[in-house]
Specification:
about 140 residues; alpha+beta; Beta Polymerase, domain 2; two-stranded antiparallel ribbon; 7 strands; about 25% strand; globular
Length: about 140
């Protein structure tokens, strides 16, 4: 994975699946709980093929410990001030992995719904309907 910018390109399910595994591996290395967001979460929620222009993940601002900053600096040269609101990385196959750092205590992140999808279990916002209606307002 590397730092990246916006592409807007649509990717295949296989490409997105590989990027999701890379994102999951990164979150495991960071010891950071995370949620799937936007179209990534919708595909997992309804057990559909992944589609879209990247992988979207959300982490809590309180998860940004010194350990997380150190790992992100060592691997990607991401400075702490560049991480505070979120950041974007590119998977080995060129897929954007967007990591949103949210600061508010949203109700739908309090009791996540865990879904099993293609050999992994992922946390999704719960209740889904409220999250889906307000997904663009998350800060």
């Amino acid at each position: 994975m590397t730092k990246t910018g916006k592409t807007g390109k649509q990717f295949t399910n296989e490409e997105l699946q590989a990027a999701l595994f890379e994102a999951e591996d990164l979150m495991d290395q960071l010891l950071t709980p995370y949620f799937l967001l936007k179209e990534t979460a919708q595909s997992v929620k309804f057990n559909n093929l992944l589609e879209g222009d990247g992988i979207d993940i959300g982490i809590r601002d309180k998860s940004l410990t010194q350990y997380v900053y150190d790992i992100l600096w060592d691997k990607f040269k991401l400075a702490p001030e560049g991480i505070k609101n979120g950041f974007e990385l590119t998977s080995a196959s060129g897929i954007p992995i967007r990591i949103k750092v949210y600061t508010r205590n949203y109700y739908f992140f309090k009791y996540p719904n865990v879904c099993v999808y293609n050999f992994g279990s992922y946390q999704l916002p719960n209740p889904w309907d409220i999250y889906w209606k307000t997904r663009f307002l998350i800060r």
